[in-house]
Design goal:
The chain is mostly helical. It has 15 helices and no strands.
């Protein structure tokens, strides 16, 4: 039985997001250790950690445009090579602020091209009835990558120093780039010129190879309708609130463990990766549930998306607010989990609902 090409593409994009988030978590761990060693204050630390996201937001729309123009496959390859080279060449020295600011800015720009390119690739390769679980699997790579980074990098930093994290990240980026170059391909198109076989046979062959999906022709983007569309803004707000929580967690969790709870990352074992591992598991569950509801026509696509997002946000609020009130605000909330001996349970419960 031949393994469908679209499955290869989905698997490679899953590994892609995995490596990207290994890099992001790895930097926050390595830089936090290096910065704390020389007494960098929290404000300056926050500035360096945030520079990635300034670059990241700048390249989102250009990333989508580039993926449509030259192909998502090429954009992914070029962006991976760029950020991998930066990680491999730039020293992680908290005293060299300008170099760190510029390097994180450019890594953010490079990685900002990745997700628009991934969505372009998946839209071209994956049929609608498989799209929810394919996208869920791909994006769950982010959380598995973050979990792996939290599990392995603290020991690596302790034994080999913060710079070793950059070396590992650069190697992973280069290895993925080589694998992507070898095993990925552009999607077949039905509008290729001068086809030497009959039209009907060509279309059937191409659709079979692409899993029933053919790449759409480029159309004019209705920017005005997009900008003034309420559903679009609902999606924007949803993504903003979700990723704000995710990136605060990702950047400041090492500092919180060290300073808020007085716990060493090396001594915490597997509990420090619980939030991200739960995200990985329940993101895929959400994708399977969504595809089931849609393909069985139990709910429409719109109602399915609304339902799962509402469940996730409602569960998160129901868990978070009582803990906040009980512990007397942010300081008590952070310390209460540790004092009650429920750190693992808190991390487990708080991370499950967010990722539907």
């Amino acid at each position: 039985m031949k393994f469908p090409k679209r499955y290869v593409i989905v698997l490679l994009t899953f590994i892609c997001t995995n490596v990207c988030y290994i890099e992001r978590v790895g930097f926050s761990i390595a830089y936090t250790v290096a910065a704390d060693a020389i007494g960098v204050n929290q404000a300056n630390k926050g500035m360096i950690l945030s520079m990635f996201y300034y670059g990241y937001v700048l390249s989102q729309i250009p990333g989508g445009w580039a993926a449509q123009r030259i192909g998502g496959r090429r954009v992914l390859l070029l962006s991976f090579i760029l950020w991998s080279l930066i990680c491999g060449l730039i020293p992680i020295d908290p005293n060299r602020i300008t170099i760190l600011v510029l390097s994180r800015l450019f890594v953010g720009v490079a990685q900002g091209f990745i997700f628009p390119a991934i969505h372009t690739v998946l839209a071209q390769w994956v049929p609608p009835q498989e799209r929810s679980r394919s996208v869920s699997l791909t994006t769950s790579g982010m959380y598995l990558g973050a979990a792996c980074g939290m599990l392995f990098f603290p020991s690596l930093v302790k034994n080999m120093g913060p710079q070793s994290v950059f070396f590992v990240e650069a190697v992973l980026g280069v290895v993925w780039s080589v694998i992507w170059l070898k095993f990925s391909s552009d999607p077949p198109r039905i509008d290729l010129p001068k086809v030497s076989i009959p039209k009907v046979a060509s279309r059937d062959t191409i659709k079979a190879q692409a899993g029933g999906v053919v790449a759409p022709r480029t159309v004019k983007i209705p920017w005005q309708r997009i900008i003034f569309s309420l559903p679009v803004w609902a999606i924007v707000v949803n993504n903003f609130t979700f990723h704000y929580a995710l990136y605060v967690l990702m950047n400041w969790l090492p500092t919180y463990f060290e300073l808020g709870l007085g716990l060493s990352l090396q001594d915490m074992g597997s509990s420090k990766m619980l939030p991200y591992f739960n995200m990985f598991i329940f993101s895929n569950i959400g994708g399977v549930v969504a595809d089931h509801l849609i393909t069985r026509r139990i709910l429409s696509v719109t109602k399915t998306r609304k339902l799962l997002n509402t469940i996730g946000n409602a569960c998160w609020n129901c868990w978070c607010w009582p803990h906040w009130e009980y512990s007397g605000g942010s300081k008590g909330f952070l310390q209460g989990s540790n004092k009650l001996g429920n750190l693992e349970n808190s991390l487990l419960c708080s991370s499950i609902p967010l990722y539907f």
